[in-house]
Backbone:
């Protein structure tokens, strides 16, 4: 048996926020931004957070893989 912590929970949280309009070489972006936060908590009580641009396909993929990630040893991912 490994001493590697096990991922106990994986939370997938879509968020939106306000950002001032910014004009750059690609044009102007919208005044709102959307992101997906992924929050992992392991069996040792540690929490890690990651983020990704928010697309429906990304959100669906993260939700689809949640059962395979929860319960996995951290060092085996």
Residues:
């Amino acid at each position: 048996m490994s001493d590697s912590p096990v991922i106990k929970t994986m939370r997938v949280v879509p968020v939106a926020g306000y950002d001032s309009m910014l004009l750059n070489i690609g044009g102007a972006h919208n005044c709102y931004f959307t992101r997906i936060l992924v929050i992992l908590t392991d069996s040792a009580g540690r929490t890690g957070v990651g983020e990704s641009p928010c697309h429906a396909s990304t959100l669906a993929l993260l939700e689809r893989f949640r059962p395979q990630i929860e319960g996995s040893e951290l060092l085996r991912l």
Q: What stands out?
A: The longest strand covers residues 7-18.
